[in-house]
Design a protein that fits this description.
mainly alpha; single chain; 0% strand; 312 residues
Length: 312
């Protein structure tokens, strides 16, 4: 055999196609683990956490505190989302909008999803406890437990699960506030109240838009139990109307002034008008308009609050 000439059937390098296949599989696995953390949902979690952090620290936030708070919160939120998907894998498989997730799609096993969610949660809680403070870690733990062990198992049993699920969803700004101050004070409770009441019209609009999916999965949300949607519209309007005065409380407790109150009033009026329109006519366009404005409302409101607090 001549030196430098490979024997027949021996390939010095793997075929290009095989290498591409390995890369594609690895990329897909990575994408599935990212999907398990619900990144779009948890972006809002980080925004509300950041708002609470800066509202409690109008003179500025140290970089180490900022990073530890955001990374720790992101890990706990991602872990909670993963554990939630492990629990809901069977119902997710029955709904069009969730059947492509890693577990119902068959691309990931229950054990993988469980250890991944548990690992993220434990590391995130540890980072908050060591790098931030015990109060922030305790609030994050309450968020994790109430979301995974209370809201998730209640969801297929009662429509009240929506109300219960609004509790962990409203705690991220409290994590941010307690990270900066080490305690839970009245302004933190006001931020909790804003986030809590905001979630109800937001979730009710989603439930109405995907009511057929939820019905197929046997999840007893209000639009499934009462297909005419009257109570869904009424509750969306009630919670949106309640949100308006709650959104003005930052000006009462000293977090903001008149400029913020003006912005909160304008946003609140628009929100109530959209909820009223949906309550009167539960059409898909009206539900979609309410949903889209809800995901715009909270970032705008918190941005106005932070700007007023820090610069006005």
């Amino acid at each position: 055999m001549k030196v430098g000439v490979p024997a027949a059937g021996v390939h010095p390098h793997p075929p290009a196609g095989a290498k591409s296949s390995v890369t594609t599989t690895t990329d897909r696995r990575f994408a599935d683990f990212v999907m398990l953390t619900k990144p779009r949902l948890n972006l809002l979690v980080l925004l509300t956490t950041l708002a609470g952090l800066y509202l409690a620290s109008p003179t500025g936030v140290e970089l180490t505190l900022l990073l530890n708070t955001l990374v720790g919160t992101a890990l706990v939120a991602g872990g909670a989302a993963a554990l939630n998907q492990v629990w809901e894998r069977r119902t997710d498989a029955l709904m069009r909008r969730t059947r492509a997730r890693p577990l119902p799609g068959g691309r990931m096993g229950v054990a993988e999803g469980t250890w991944f969610g548990a690992l993220l949660s434990i590391v995130g809680l540890g980072q908050l406890a060591i790098g931030v403070n015990l109060t922030a870690a305790a609030v994050a733990l309450a968020t994790l437990v109430s979301y995974v062990l209370v809201y998730t198992p209640l969801k297929p049993l009662t429509s009240l699960a929506t109300l219960v699920g609004a509790i962990p969803g409203a705690l991220p700004p409290v994590i941010g506030w307690s990270a900066a101050t080490g305690r839970i004070s009245l302004p933190a409770l006001v931020l909790f109240g804003i986030s809590f009441f905001w979630q109800m019209p937001h979730f009710l609009a989603i439930a109405w838009l995907f009511r057929d999916d939820y019905a197929n999965a046997g999840i007893p949300l209000l639009p499934v139990l009462e297909p005419d949607g009257r109570r869904t519209g009424q509750q969306a309007l009630i919670y949106t109307a309640a949100l308006w005065p709650v959104s003005l409380l930052p000006a009462v407790v000293g977090l903001a002034g008149i400029p913020y109150a003006i912005v909160a009033t304008v946003l609140g009026m628009l929100f109530v008008w959209l909820a009223l329109r949906f309550a009167r006519d539960r059409s898909m366009p009206n539900a979609r308009a309410l949903f889209l404005f809800s995901i715009t409302y909270l970032p705008l409101l918190l941005a106005a609050l932070v700007v007023d607090r820090l610069w006005i």
